[in-house]
Amino acid sequence: MTTSSPDAPRQRGNYAKGVARRQEILDRAIEVFAQRGAQRTSLRAIAQEVGVTHAALTHYFGSLEELLVAVYTESQRRSDGEEAEAPDATPAEAMRVSAKRNREIPGMVQLYSTLVATALEENHPAAQDFATERFARLRADLTERVRNLQSAGRLRADVEAHLVAALVIAASDGLQTQWLLEPSLDHEAALGMLDLLLSGPVAPELPSATDR
């Protein structure tokens, strides 16, 4: 007969409290970053805004970079659950759902842009892993979406699905950056132009050199 250690319930209780405390800090950090964006600052200054000690923030998140990744990832997880795009939406339509949602949280858009820019620098593994994995997942999801729409005759079939996916992501991110700098830009309408291009008639083939 095996007996459990008397310390086991206590350890489980401490673990549960730790998880709850980390989530509590993350909830408050999301509120802060949604309002202020990702202005360059220290972990100590953020701890003061969130209302915890610097030691607590370091204990649960390790570094400023890891905190930024956790904040953005959790914020997106919640948003995706609240408003998901239709399964038969075009890639541009799917991105327009995100664009519409992001207009309400410019601080998170700025945070995302900061993470992607940081990922291009050396010695930033958390940001690099975040950006690389996100782009790979988005490309895979959108590629499958494009192929399904091509099979249904809703998108032109003479374009490479994986290249369309990469193009839509690049357009969405680029337009998002322009919108941060110029809020009057109609991000959603610009993405809609992609649908017109992708659903338009097949471009005629150019004559070969031997036909000229």
Automatic annotation (TrEMBL):
Residues 42-61 bind DNA. Coiled coil: none annotated. PROSITE patterns: HTH_TETR_2 (PS50977). The keyword Translocase does not apply. Keywords: DNA-binding, Repressor, Transcription, Transcription regulation. Pfam families: TetR_C_6, TetR_N. Residues 19-79 form the HTH tetR-type domain. The keyword Hydrolase does not apply. PANTHER family: HTH-TYPE TRANSCRIPTIONAL REGULATOR BETI (PTHR30055:SF234), HTH-TYPE TRANSCRIPTIONAL REGULATOR RUTR (PTHR30055). This is TetR/AcrR family transcriptional regulator. It comes from Microbacterium marmarense.
